[in-house]
């Protein structure tokens, strides 16, 4: 358990002092500190510590520590949604989300992980996310769910 605590403490220190854009970069910093870690362990630590990837003031995505120690998927989705979504539109059986640059992929993954029953598939680009539903009514319901996140 001491090893986990040391690893997670070091992880938090790195994030406070460096602008980290990838898990690979984070693993390299940890390796430099003498901490060898697998990607799966790093991902678990990041989830436990509430580390999420957000768009920063310089329009680049990087890892940050959320305000809570443990963050659930919905909390993470709300945070990313609130900080990155500009507009939510419905066109027939699709819901289109206009996002800040470089944030559509992160948002798409969070939406897919959350498991909305109305959602059949999502497709993310640079600043746009398209969510496909089976019919207009489900798209209307999904849009309403998304608007609750803002």
From TrEMBL:
Q: Tell me the pathway.
A: Amino-acid biosynthesis; L-arginine biosynthesis [regulation]
Annotated localization: Cytoplasm
UniProt GO molecular function: arginine binding; DNA binding; DNA-binding transcription factor activity
A Pfam family cross-referenced in the UniProt record is Arg_repressor_C
Under Gene3D superfamilies, the record lists: 3.30.1360.40, Winged helix-like DNA-binding domain superfamily/Winged helix DNA-binding domain (1.10.10.10)
Alphabetical GO CC annotations of the entry are: cytoplasm
Q: What does this protein do?
A: Regulates arginine biosynthesis genes.
Q: What is this protein called?
A: Arginine repressor
Source species: Holzapfeliella floricola DSM 23037 = JCM 16512
